[in-house]
Design goal:
single chain; 259 residues; alpha+beta; three-stranded antiparallel β-sheet; 6 helices; flat
């Protein structure tokens, strides 16, 4: 819920009209808390139900994409009840990897590194993310809050190797993402850019590189990766992000005789 305090009833009534006009999905209730006059806003039950149904359907679509990438023949993915999804994967060999891929909420963002904050150590007004380095240490990367490219603008990804034969991910952006990337790289040559991977609300700078030239829809993500990590990252990027996090609540393995 959202609680808003007011000093007088007239202002609260004016605010009620303004809030309902701009956020019609909220239900507003008036409450008094001592000398304060409150408006308490909560999502309407029909809106909550619609959001949940949409999230489940989006997750089913994403799971289909991920299962197809795993190469499972004739999978079954269907909704059960209001908030559960049943996944059947006949013949899957690596069960642990399948579970990890299906449940990950990974999404990518591209941001510019705040190099002034990095050199001065004053990170006020920036977002700071951990970065795994090649020597095994973990550094801190301050980035600007503005997001250049969001996860839903990645339309393709393939695991590959860079010119130094290190594991990398070749990605493709949609037209809007490519346009944003082209403008940013043109105007910020020789500056640092970070690729941030978000999982379960936490971000990690998986790649920090200097912009060597202008580029748009196609580029490579390089970092401290193993070949398996680039394969998984490419798969997750291709198949899209989950609309809501999921957790496994029941798991069964059926043998061929029972089958």
């Amino acid at each position: 819920a959202i609680r808003v305090r007011f000093r007088d009833a007239a202002t609260r009534e004016a605010a009620r009209g303004a809030i309902l006009a701009s956020v019609p999905d909220l239900a507003l209730a008036e409450r008094d808390d001592g000398q304060d006059l409150l408006l308490v806003g909560t999502l309407r039950p029909d809106v909550l139900k619609r959001v949940q149904e949409t999230a489940v359907q989006q997750n089913i679509s994403t799971l289909h994409n991920r299962v197809n990438e795993l190469g499972v023949a004739e999978p079954v993915i269907q909704q059960q009840g209001a908030d559960r999804i049943v996944v059947q994967l006949p013949g899957v060999q690596d069960i642990a990897r399948a579970k990890e891929i299906l449940g990950r909420t990974a999404t990518l963002e591209v941001r510019l590194v705040d190099e002034q904050a990095m050199s001065s150590g004053n990170t006020f007004g920036t977002d700071v993310f951990p970065e795994r380095r090649r020597d095994g240490s973990v550094g801190q990367v301050p980035t600007r809050k503005q997001v250049i490219v969001t996860g839903d603008q990645f339309v393709g990804a393939q695991a590959t190797f860079d010119q130094d034969h290190r594991p990398a991910v070749a990605v493709e952006l949609d037209q809007a993402g490519g346009r944003s990337m082209r403008i940013t790289t043109r105007e910020n040559l020789k500056r640092l850019m970070a690729i941030v991977l978000f999982e379960k609300g936490k971000g990690e700078a998986i790649s920090v590189a200097t912009i060597q030239g202008e580029f748009g829809t196609d580029f490579q993500i390089t970092g401290n990766f193993t070949p398996q990590e680039t394969a998984d990252l490419a798969l997750l990027t291709r198949s899209g992000q989950l609309a809501a996090p999921m957790e496994i609540i029941e798991e069964r393995t059926i043998g061929p005789s029972l089958g």
